[in-house]
Amino acid sequence: PPPSSLDPEVAARLRRTSDGLVAAVVQEHGTGDVLMLAWMDDEALAATLTTGRATYWSRSRGELWRKGDTSGHVQHVRSVALDCDGDALLVRVDQVGPACHTGTRTCFDGRDLGALDVATADGEPGDHP
Amino acid sequence: PPPSSLDPEVAARLRRTSDGLVAAVVQEHGTGDVLMLAWMDDEALAATLTTGRATYWSRSRGELWRKGDTSGHVQHVRSVALDCDGDALLVRVDQVGPACHTGTRTCFDGRDLGALDVATADGEPGDHP
């Protein structure tokens, strides 16, 4: 691959998938809501860190994708953290408009899986073992 | 692969990686904090949905992993949502103890990447384009 503009110290900490990507969890700064999951390669992370505009790798289109360039639904980046084992990023953003391309506010809205037996979960003793 | 106990209607909506996994974003129910990113195969998702105990696929160990069985740091599942394109789950949990195996509360705590020019991000007009 061509040399990346990503800080070599950061690049050395990434544990990438076989196709060179790290998962990016995108969380809204103000509400704490999880907006979406996206993917970053080294260039996308470098662009995100240097421009403050969330930039991802589109697996379906096979190209860099600066969120909002087409939709206007821009993400202004507040912070980026790398997890303990280097395979996930937490990107905190201010979101303009809906985050999801379907028009919902987050990509998870209204998409709960019904199979969970909530009664069982609620019957657990909560925060204590 | 052997037949899975996962609801076929749910299984049909999953868009798995080449190694059969879906990313699971784990969020604390009470605080909204993103605790960790983990991975689920069909069996892990089925177990999570039917038992209310968060269960993942460990990529490093190559086995199912019910969170807390060794550490005691159990996750009681409140809800599970599948995102718009079927490649990510949002698992909301009540977390017992720290979520991270390193002992930090989340896997992202204290791990911000310093390269972001926060002044630039703060200079953006916030929620409006």
Compose a concise summary of this entry.
Chains A, B: Zn(2+) binds at residues 84, 100, 107. Two copies of one chain form a homodimer. By secondary structure, chain A is an alpha+beta fold.
Stretches of chain A where pLDDT falls below 50 for ≥5 residues?
118-129
Q: Tell me the CATH superfamily of chain A.
A: Phosphoribosyl-AMP cyclohydrolase
Instruction: State mean pLDDT of chain A (0 to 100 scale).
Output: 89
Terminal CA distance of chain A reads 48 Å
Number of domains of chain A: 1
Function (chains A, B): Catalyzes the hydrolysis of the adenine ring of phosphoribosyl-AMP.
EC number (chains A, B): 3.5.4.19
Organism (chains A, B): Pseudokineococcus basanitobsidens
Domain Phosphoribosyl-AMP cyclohydrolase (chains A, B): 36-108
How do the strands and helices of this protein lay out in sequence?
The structure is a homodimer of 129-residue chains.
Chain A lengths: L7 H4 L10 E7 L5 E7 L1 H10 L3 E4 L4 E4 L8 E8 L5 E8 L22 H6 L6
Parallel strand pairs in A: 1-6
Antiparallel strand pairs in A: 1-2, 3-4, 5-6
Q: How would you describe this structure to a colleague?
A:
The structure is a homodimer of 129-residue chains. Chain A is globular, with a radius of gyration of 17 Å. Chain A has a single domain (8-123), classed as Phosphoribosyl-AMP cyclohydrolase (Ubiquitin-like (UB roll)), CATH 3.10.20.810. In chain A, strand 5 (75-82) and strand 6 (88-95) form a beta hairpin. Helices cover 16% and strands 29% of the residues of chain A. The first copy, chain A, has three helices and six strands; from the N terminus they run H-E-E-H-E-E-E-E-H. Chain A is of the alpha+beta class and 129 residues long. The interface between A and B is large, with 57 and 57 residues.
